[in-house]
Amino acid sequence: MNADMTPHETNHRAKAVEVAKKYADQEPMFGIEQEYTFFQDERPYGWPEVGYPAPQGPYYCGVGGSKMPGRDIVEAHTLACLRAGIGIEGTNAEVMMGQWEFQVGILGAVEVGDQLWVARWLLERIAEEFDVEVSFAAKPIKGDWNGAGAHTNFSTKAMRGVGGWDAIIAGCEALGTRVKEHIAAYGDGITERLTGAHETAPWSKYSYGVSNRAASVRIPGGVARDKRGYLEDRRPNANIDPYLVASVMVETICGAAAKGKKSGAKTTAKKTAAKKRGATKKAAKKSPAKKTAARKPAKKAAKRR
């Protein structure tokens, strides 16, 4: 806060509140998939003291003793979130050993940020009890290892409703009009993570597609079948400020939808006005014909006289 109690320029929550109010009629909702990496003694938790673990592959959503270091921390964190009233939707092990994820949602633009920050704090505090640290770095280990993101799921009332497919595609198209602004808001180290490898799209190239994990924005297969639901922006980093991400997504997608409605209203108004003008002209053309018809009997009567 500033000295006069106005929000400081770095207060991104205030911006999220403002944007959420502006587009409240569209009912934007979020779900954020928070990835993170456990570290101990300056290396990922569970990694050997020298060298590397087995290649990536068996760790993602895996089970089994030595492959899943940190599960006890994850389960303690999940329980703490539930007790705290956090909207935690689930957890899973990630692609790199020592890397995990939890999901928070489905919440509004402000609430998702509030709850994610608290969930992050709980995670770090609980990991402390195990002498483990939590990293939200976008690329915790250089080289041929997966980075850590915060895939952001987004929908509006129109997207969730029957026939929401057109609104979903419109949202994907809108995101492609402000690529640089979104990349700037999606966390530190984004160019190291969004390389086009490890299930990412290049940071400088925007794309979207159905069930495509290598696209900037993915439309889940179930959404494509149902023709309604949500979209998943896969670009945000694990270290995002969720208020900032929510703000820019709502501004871009809901802003475009609002402009489309205004444009459509203007077009409808013009068509209505044109129809009225056409009807008036037709009526004007018909009036003289009626008058002429009324005069003919008068002329015949004059001849009879």
What does this structure look like?
The protein has helices at 12-22, 71-84, 111-128, 157-160, 165-175, 179-185, 190-193, 221-226, 242-304, and strands at residues 29-40, 43-44, 88-93, 99-107, 133-135, 150-155, 208-210, 217-219, 231-233. It has 305 residues and is of the alpha+beta class. The protein has one domain (12-262): Glutamine synthetase/guanido kinase, catalytic domain (Creatine Kinase, Chain A, domain 2, 2-Layer Sandwich), CATH 3.30.590.10. Strands 1, 2, 3, 4, 5, 6, 7, 8 and 9 form a nine-stranded mixed β-sheet that branches. Helix 1 packs parallel to helix 9, helix 2 (71-84) crosses helix 3 (111-128) and helix 5 packs across helix 9 (242-304). It is globular, with a radius of gyration of 29 Å. Residues 289-305 have low confidence and may be disordered.
